[in-house]
Design brief:
This protein is about 35% helix and about 15% strand. It has helices at about 1-10, 35-40, 60-75, 85-100, 125-130, 145, 180-200; strands at about 10-15, 25-30, 50-55, 75-80, 105, 120, 135-140, 160-165, 200-205. Strands 1-8-7-2-5-3-4 form a 7-stranded mixed sheet, sandwiched between helices. A two-stranded parallel ribbon has the order 6-9. It is globular, with a radius of gyration of 16 Å. GO terms for molecular function: 1-acylglycerol-3-phosphate O-acyltransferase activity.
């Protein structure tokens, strides 16, 4: 299935040399489409676990069912964004993935960009990075919003590109995962790295689903 989908979207991967082949790894990506969680793992030569909103596990239509299947089969971490306590608790589950030496991917914006711009990151990404000590590799997704535009239920053929950047150096910026200011500073550094790869206009406010 993966190879067929790769051919259909003519998946192009850049910067794969920045992705460690083993050990804990935190991938921090922009978020353009529900299909990001399908194509990003295809660009990595190792298993990737995601934090994904609960709705992705109950999708309908051809695209929704495919994403639901993908999420469920690989043990992705579902998060209920409407329940703050549950969302915070889910970070502990994400941390466990990193602590056992696996790769974990997160969308710091918290939801898909409503207009293609890059929105302010939520500090959970920094908490995970600082708590685990895992290298943070920024990721830029291109073209996934054309595969499945907002409101569409049928995927369309479009070229997809995934770009990985050099790990973000956080040591000089922040060290304490419990310090809110340090978490925010680390998050801003991560978002700047993502924006540097994607070229998206930055919006200094949270995106709304």
């Amino acid at each position: 299935m993966y190879e067929l989908v790769k051919k259909v979207v003519r998946l192009r991967v850049e910067g794969a040399e920045h992705v460690p082949p083993s050990g804990p790894l935190l991938l921090a990506s922009n978020h353009l489409s529900i299909t990001d969680s399908t194509f990003l793992p295809m660009a990595v030569a190792r298993k990737v676990t995601f934090m994904a909103k609960a709705e992705y596990f109950t999708g309908r239509g051809p695209a929704g069912r495919f994403v639901s299947w993908f999420m469920s089969r690989d043990g992705q971490v579902a998060v209920d964004r409407d329940d703050k306590r549950a969302a915070v608790a889910s970070l502990d589950t994400c941390l466990e993935v990193l602590q056992r030496g696996d790769a974990f991917a997160i969308y710091p914006e918290g939801t898909r960009s409503p207009d293609g711009r890059l929105y302010r990151g939520r500090t959970g990404v920094a908490w995970l990075a600082l708590k685990s000590g895992a290298p943070v590799v920024p990721v830029a997704m291109f073209g996934t919003d054309r595969v499945l535009p907002p409101g569409s239920v049928i995927p369309r053929p479009a070229r997809v590109r995934v770009v990985f950047g050099k790990p973000v150096q956080l040591a000089a910026i922040a060290t304490d995962p419990e310090n809110a200011r340090e978490r925010r500073a680390a998050t801003e550094a991560i978002m700047a790295a993502i924006g540097g790869l994607s070229g998206q206009e930055y919006v200094p406010k949270y995106a709304r689903a």
